[in-house]
Amino acid sequence: AAAYNRILEGLNSESDPTDGQLTVATSPDFAPMEFVDLSRSGDEQYVGFDILLAKDIANKLNKELVIKPMSFDAVQAAVQTGSVDMGISGFSWTEERADNYFLTRWYKAGENETEQTIITTKANDGKLTTADSYKGLKVGAQGGSLQKILVEEQLKDSELVLYENLNDACTAVMTGKIDALAVATGNGESFISANPDDLVMTGFQFEVDDLYKNNVVMINKNNTEFGEQVNAILDQQEKDGVWDTWYEAAQMLGEIKTADELDD
Questions:
Q1: How confident is the model over 98-133, as pLDDT tens digits?
Q2: What's the pLDDT tens digit per position in 27-77?
Q3: What whole-number distance in Å separates Cα of residue 36 and Cα of residue 227?
Q4: Residues 43, 202: contact at Cβ < 8 Å?
């Protein structure tokens, strides 16, 4: 946790909440982007790349960051109704989201959008490497996610099973309720790291359109001026080159990658 803590301490030292609160909805079941660290308390138990991103945005707006944990679908509903200021939860750009929300410019999310894959049990190791091998099988995905879209488009002969919570979906794979689970690669690595005796990567890779290959912040459609403020902050983050460091620290905190593995 040392690398993550150093970044968080630095962001906390820059905090000057003189202009109210920034409420950010997130679904904390998507390591290394957002997840729960039970060794921490309060809002600081919500950790990950997106949480650091949100903290920096709050700092630059001189606001106190308040995390609102909820299901992935509920995040989108909360932004649409205006009950939160924004949603930051590993969102990729989609045409439907662009029609219904203000989507910010992209931000880099490691391999979480560029690489989309499927995990399964060790009993299926090596058996699910092609699209044809999923015919008639139950494949899980999170409701409202990019993975749902990819399963619908590229595994049309499978049976799609939707889950609100990815942790529940992971349990469903291990207990045989579904055969496999569509995930972002970084998220899949997190599940395998936590369950190394039970889960493996299938080796199957979805084809991902360039439009989907980065993440965006989701803001209410009517808050264009606020959205442009956030865009300017994301521009500065990219210029400062902080995203790779944040992502690697979140990977180490989630025990997905070690420092030695990242150096390699």
A1: 999 999 999 987 665 678 999 999 999 999 999 999
A2: 999 999 999 999 999 889 999 999 999 999 999 999 999 999 999 999 999
A3: 27
A4: no
Residue in 205, 115, 90, 201 with CA at minimum distance from that of residue 155: 205
Nearest to 118 by CA among 182, 198, 48: 182
Listed residue (233, 225, 223, 228) closest to 82, CA to CA: 223
CA angle in degrees (0–180, nearest 5) for 145-46-99? 30
Give 76: exposed, middle or buried? Use CB within 10 Å, 0-12, 13-18, 19+.
buried
The CA R_g of the chain, rounded to the nearest whole Å, is 18
pTM as predicted:
0.85
> Which strand ranges, in their side-by-side order, compose the sheet holding 86-87?
64-69, 21-26, 86-87, 218-220, 101-103
Reference 19, options 65, 56, 87; nearest CA is 65
Please choose, from the candidates 25, 74, 36, the residue with its C-alpha nearest in 3D space to the C-alpha of residue 190: 36
Positive/negative CA dihedral, 169, 172, 177, 178: positive
**What distance in Å separates the CA atoms of residue 101 and residue 250, rounded to the nearest whole number?**
27
